C-alpha cells in the first residue's frame, strides 16, 4: 500500500535520512521506533511532503507521490497526526475537527463525518463548543487524532501520540490506535514507547541515526535481545 524506497532527506546540507526502505501493507499496523533524533519524525514528514529536500521513491497504491504537496498527499488518503498535536487552541473543538476536512467541499459529507467522530469520541461531542486549548492533554491528543480522521484517510501516520500523557491515558491512546486499525485504516506509528508500540503492531522497524537497522514481525522484535537492550529498557 505504502512503499518508501531509498528515501533520503536533508535539513540544509545535513543529511538526516540516509536511504531507508519501509513498507506498510493494506490494513497493517506498523511501528517505527528508535532513539531521539534517529529520524522518525523526518521520515513521516518526508512521506507527507513536508520536507523541502528529499530524494527517493514514495509510492502509495503504486502511485508515485514523492513530489506531492502535503494537501495532495492528504487527498490521496494519507493523514498525519503531528508530534505535539498542533491543535488550534483558540478554535472550538468542532471548528478544529472541521479543519481536518478542509478538502471536502460537500457540507453534508462533512456533517456526516463529524457525527461519526462524535460517536467514536463522545467526550469531544460533549466539549464541541469549548476552545481546543482548554482540553486536557489526553483530550487534545484525541482531538488531533479525530481531526486527522475527519479527512477519511486510508492510512494514518502518528508521530509520538503518547508523548506527555499520564500512564492511564497512554494505554487509552494505544487501544484507540488499535481500534482505528481494526476498523480498516492502515497505520504507521512512530513511538518512543517502543514496548507498547510493538505490542499492538504487526511489524516494526528500528531506525538509528537515519538508517534502518532492524525490521521484522513485532513479536520477534519484542523478543530480540538487541532490541530489548537498546530500545525496550532491559538490562
Ligand atoms: P525525536 O523523537 O526526538 O523527535 P526523531 O527520531 O523523530 O527524534 P527527527 O526529529 O526526525 O528525529 O530528527 C532527525 C535528525 O534531524 C536529528 O539529528 C535532528 O537534530 C535533525 N533535525 C530535526 N529537525 C530539524 C530541523 N528543523 N532543522 C535541522 N535539523 C533538524
UniProtKB/TrEMBL annotation:
CDD domains in UniProt: ABC_TM1139_LivF_branched
Pfam family, any one: ABC_tran
Classification via SMART domains: AAA
SUPFAM superfamilies: P-loop containing nucleoside triphosphate hydrolases
PROSITE patterns: ABC_TRANSPORTER_1, ABC_TRANSPORTER_2
Domain ABC transporter: 2-234
GO biological process, one term: L-amino acid transport
Keyword Transport: yes
Keywords carried by this UniProt record: Amino-acid transport, ATP-binding, Nucleotide-binding, Transport
GO molecular function: ATP binding; ATP hydrolysis activity; branched-chain amino acid transmembrane transporter activity
Family named by the database record: Belongs to the ABC transporter superfamily.
PANTHER family membership: HIGH-AFFINITY BRANCHED-CHAIN AMINO ACID TRANSPORT ATP-BINDING PROTEIN LIVF
Protein's name in the database: Amino acid/amide ABC transporter ATP-binding protein 2, HAAT family
